[in-house]
Amino acid sequence: MKMQLNSPTLYIEINQSNFIFAVGENDEKNNFKSIYRLEDSIKGINDNRISNYDEILNIIKQNLYSIEQKLDHTFTEVVLILENLNTSFVNLAGFKKLNSSQVLRENITYILNTLKSCVDQHEAKKTILHIFNTKYFLDEKKIENLPIGLFGDFYSHELSFSLIDTNDYKNIKNIFSVCNLKIKKIFLKSFVKGCLICDKNIGINSFFLLQINNHDSKIIFFDNHSLKFEQSFSFGKDIILNDISKILSLNKDTIKKIINHVNFNEKILEDEVIDNKFFIKENFRKIKKKLIFEIASARIEEIFKLILLKNINVKSFAKDIKTVLLEFNDDEETTHLNDIIKKFVLENSDFDLKSSKNFTDHSIFEKASELVHFGWKTEAIPIAQTKKTLIAKFFEAIFG
After folding, report:
1. What is the pTM of this model?
2. What does the alpha-carbon distance between residue 374 and residue 369 come to, in Å, rounded to a whole number?
3. Pick from 180, 151, 183: which is nearest to 170 by CA?
4. Residues 72 and 110 sit within 8 Å (Cβ to Cβ)
5. d(CA 128, CA 88)
6. Pick from 73, 84, 82: which is nearest to 181 by CA?
7. Which of 42, 81, 324, 326 gets the highest tally of CB atoms within 10 A of its CB?
8. Separation CA 315–CA 224 (nearest Å)
9. Dihedral Cα 64, 68, 69, 70, nearest 10 deg
10. Residues with Cβ within 8 Å of residue 278, at least 6 apart in sequence
C-alpha cells in the first residue's frame, strides 16, 4: 500500500561505508518524523574523492526510484549530509576602523563579503560549504555576540570557512541534477554532530571531538559553536589489535575475546596471566595480562600523539580548549578496548575528557531538518552588495 505524504523531505547521507537515504516530515509544531529509510554500500568514492561518477549516479537513481515508488511521491529537492569527501578549513579575521563611531550591520557585511572574496580568490579550486562567525573583538576586548550598535575605535571579526574540492562539488551537483533533484542544502556531518553536542551539553561550546572507529579515526574542532577544523586518519582500533596479534602470535579473534572479557581497568598483578578458556583454536600459552595492556598502551600513545597531542594542525587550538569528547563506533567486540583508550587519555593528558554518544541516523536527520528551517546561531550568510554608481563612489571617497 502506497503512503500519502504532505510535505516530505529527502535526506541523503554519504559516509565512510554507506549511502543512507531517509525521508522525513515536519508536523504543524515543526517536530521531525522519520517516514522511510534505506541504505546502500558505498561505491564510486575512494580516498575521500569521487572516483566513479557513473557508479554514484546509478546508486542514487535506483534508490530514488525505489523510494518514490514506495511512497508514491516525486521529490524535487534533497538535503545532503557529507562525511566522505575531502574538506579543508580557512580561518581569517577582518577589521574596521570606527574612530569612536558605532558598529553598523554594514560594517559586518563588508568584512564578511571581503573575507569571502579573499577565500574565493585564493582557494579557486574549492567551494565554500559553511561560513561561521567565530569571534568578535571591539577595541581588543572579546565580545560574546555581534556588537551592532556599540561604540569603539577598532572592530575585528573572525570567520571560519569550510570547503570541499570544486570538482567533487560539481560532480555531486550534476549527479543530482540528472536525477531531477535540486540540492536544497549541503551539511558536513561533523557540523551537524557538533551542533547536537552543543545542544545536549549546556555550557560546552568549544571542544575537540575524537571519533575512533575500527578502521579510521577523525578529530573535529568546534570553537564558540562553530566548526573550525577536522582531520581524518586511516587507522583506528584495528591497528591496536593487529599489534597485539603480531607481537604475541595470536589470531585477532582470540585477541578480541581476551580484551572483551578481561577488565584491564582494574589493577593488574605482575604475574597475572590470561585464562586458558580464551584459547579455543590455539594452543594455550602463558601470556601476562600486563603485557597485553602495555602493547595496547604503546600503540594508543602513538595514535593520540598523531591525532591530538603532537598534531601540528591542532596545537594552536589546544592552548585554550581542554574539553575532549571521545566517540567510539558501536562494536561490542571492542568495548573494553574503548575503556583502555579512555584510561590512557585520562592518565596521560590534562584534557577534560568526556564521553560522546554515537548519534543515530534519526538524530542526524532531525538536526539537519532543524538547521534547514532555522539555521545555526553562528552560521554567516554573505549578502550580495549592490553596485555603486560613480557619483556614490566619489562621495564615499570624500566623506567615508
Report:
1. 0.87
2. 9
3. 183
4. no
5. 9
6. 73
7. 81
8. 17
9. 100
10. 254, 257, 258, 261
Q: Which residue has the cell 566517540?
A: 327
Q: Where are the alpha helices (DSSP H) in 37-165?
A: 53-71, 105-122
Residue found by looking up cell 576602523 in the block: 97
pLDDT in tens for each of the 400 residues of the chain? 445 556 899 999 999 889 999 999 988 778 899 999 999 999 999 888 899 999 999 999 999 999 999 999 999 999 999 998 889 999 999 999 999 999 999 999 999 999 999 999 999 999 999 999 999 999 999 998 889 999 999 999 999 999 999 999 999 999 999 999 999 999 999 999 999 999 988 888 999 999 998 888 999 999 999 999 999 998 998 999 999 999 988 888 888 888 887 777 677 778 888 888 888 778 888 888 888 888 988 998 899 889 988 888 888 777 778 899 999 886 666 777 888 888 877 877 778 888 888 889 999 999 999 999 999 999 987 654 444 444 444 434 433 3
Beta strands in 198-350 (DSSP E): 207-212, 217-223, 226-233, 323-328
Alpha-carbon span 210 to 237, nearest angstrom? 13
Residues 355 and 336: their CA atoms lie apart, in Å, by 14
Let me know how long the chain is: 400
How does DSSP classify residue 236?
Answer: -
Contacts of 271 (CB under 8 A, 6+ apart): 288
278: which DSSP letter?
G
Query: 217-223 and 18-26 as β-strands: parallel, antiparallel, unpaired?
Result: unpaired
The H or E element containing residue 397 is helix 390-399
Secondary structure of residue 270 in the 3-state scheme? coil
Strands 141-143 and 126-138: antiparallel
Whole-number Å distance between alpha carbons of 91 and 221: 12
Residues with Cβ < 8 Å from 241, sequence gap 6 or more? Answer: 252, 255, 256, 259, 334, 337
> Any bridge partners for residue 217, and if so which?
212, 233
The C-alpha cell at 109 is 557585511
